[in-house]
Structures are given as C-alpha cells and as structure tokens.
Write the structure tokens for this entry.
Amino acid sequence: MRIPLIAGNWKMNKTIGEALELAKALHYGLQYPEATKLEIVVAPPYTVLNKVAEFLKDSFIGVSAQDLFWEDSGAFTGAISAPMIKDAGAEYVIIGHSERRQLFNETDASVNKKIKAALKASLIPIFCVGETLQEREAGKVNAVIGTQFSGGLESLTTEDMAKMVIAYEPVWAIGTGKTATPEQAEEVHSMIRKMLVEKFGQTTADIVRVLYGGSVKPSNSKELLSQPNIDGALVGGASLKAEDFVGIIKNAI
Ligand code: PGA
C-alpha cells in the first residue's frame, strides 16, 4: 500500500515573511486525520528553507529542497550541497525538474550524481521525468522517459530505489494550465511502474510512489489521484496559495 504524497514546489517564489505566512496557513489549515492518510511536503527556496523547516518541525508537513549540487563542500560558488540541505532541516530534495533540465543544462548524468549525493546524505530524492510537447507529438514519450529513467537511475541499487519518489511531469503541462488527462497520465505512470519492475523487481516497484505534476489544481486533482498508478502530486502554481494546496490535499483523501 503506497501512502499518497502531495508535494508543493514553491519554485523561485516567497520572501521570508510570505513563506512563513504560507507555512502557517498550511499548518493551521490542515487537520490531524489528513496527516494519517497521506504525506505532505513543501519545497521552499533555499533562502527560507531553514526558517520553514524550523516552523514546521513539529508538524506533519515535511520539507524539501528544490535542487542540490553533488559535491559535499568546497569551492563551488553559488552551489548548495546535500549535507547543507539536511542541516537546514529538509528531508526531501527535488532532482531533475524540467526547469533545471531546460534552463540550467541539467543532464541525465548530472541528475544521477545528484540522486547519489542526496541518498548519501539520507535525503529522499523526488526524481522528475517528463517529455516536451514536441517529443509527445513525435510519438517519443516512452523513449524519452526510458532514457531519463535509465540515465538518472544508473547504478542505483534496489535498496536505493526503495527510498526514492518519482515525479512524472509532462513539460507541456507545467505552468501552462494544460493538464494531462487522467488517462494520458495513467498510461505513462503504468509504463514507469513497468520500468521499475524490470530494473528493480516487483517488491520495489510496488512501494515506490510515482507522483503526477503539471497544472494540478483542486478542480482536477481528484480524478488524477484516483488513477491506480498515480500516488500523489507535485504541485507548482497551486501550492503557492494555502487554500488551493489544502484543496488538493483534501481531494487526495
Ligand atoms: P505547475 O508546476 O503545477 O505550476 O504546473 C508543477 C511543477 O513544475 O512541479
């Protein structure tokens, strides 16, 4: 039985004051019963990671970073390492988000190094995959996801995989208001589940959560989350407003 995970990716948004306000609204807007049925995580930017983590320390809302660099420390100006993220109070880290891939030249090889660095520091990687519209229209969804999957997860053990979360985020659905239909999403999610079975075995494939991301909002989340292989959501825009994020969480129960 996979416990659904709803993660909010705040991206490059929220000053310190705004972030604390949102964290407070989520904390007080959610009730204990929700916490027992699913897992909730927020991913604030680095500048507020520690403050949000401190505030949410005794709550049932977990904290994630949005990226990391694979070295532990040293002369890497501007970079943040896995041990630093752990020290700031986060338990998760998003790796390989399509915005990192597109805007910051992230490759499957760098994603793989980052996943290994996260696991070494006992952070849970939320590993993102997804195709562009052009790739979908060219009938390359399976090939693209397959390459990202095998490159990102290269030389990981079954034990490593069992600790991770995967997020399928079609690039054409991110921040565009266009959501994959529940059927379109389920098709890719079940393919990812098959890839997990082939590479890591049935037991591991049965426990790894595969989240859907891309314009998830309260009005479409219920149908998406009711698909058998969709185990939660990675929410961008709608995670910036407490009311919307709480709405998505309530729909997941
Ligand atoms: P969106 O972003 O919900 O704003 O489409 C999702 C994501 O990028 O994780």
About this structure: Residues 3 and 38 are 5 Å apart (CA to CA). Residues 5-252 form a domain with the TIM Barrel fold (CATH 3.20.20.70).
